[in-house]
Amino acid sequence: MRMFLAIVYGFLNLVGCTDAQNRSMRVSSSENGTTVLDARTDVDLGRAEFTCNASRSGHCYYAVFYEGKEIRTFVLSVAERRRLDGLPAGFEQCVGAEPSRMSPSCRPL
Is residue 62 within 8 Å of residue 73, measured between CB atoms? Predict the structure, then answer.
């Protein structure tokens, strides 16, 4: 039975059906062929790993939201990673290359 459930869950992930606790988010932007921002977040069972791959400023500025409320902000240098445990399922994030406060829709305030 255990193996059957593992196969079913694996199949659902392959076709894109997954829950908010298991997902990857990638943010990438460029201007005139030059990378402005490249960041990735992997979420696995409530553990999120944030990675700043590239940023024209040398830093990625993160804001984490849940139900429209900011619950955490932090800054990573390029090539730096941060692992956070216990974030609520379905949290949202905004990440930018410049320091600025962001709304839950990722617009500067």
Answer: yes
Identify which of 73, 30, 77 has the alpha carbon closest to the alpha carbon of residue 51: 77
Over residues 19-61, the pLDDT tens digits come to: 556 789 999 999 999 999 999 999 988 799 999 999 999 999 9
Q: What does DSSP assign to residue 19?
A: -
Structure tokens at 54: 């590239």
Predicted structure pTM score:
0.79
* Strand 47-55, strand 59-66: pairing: unpaired
In sequence order, what E strands does 2-80 have?
Answer: 22-31, 34-44, 47-55, 59-66, 69-77
Residue 10 CA: distances (Å) to CA of 1, 4, 13, 19, 46: 14, 10, 5, 12, 18
The backbone torsions φ and ψ at residue 100, rounded to the nearest 5 degrees and listed phi first, read -165, 150
Radius of gyration of the CA atoms of the chain, in A: 16
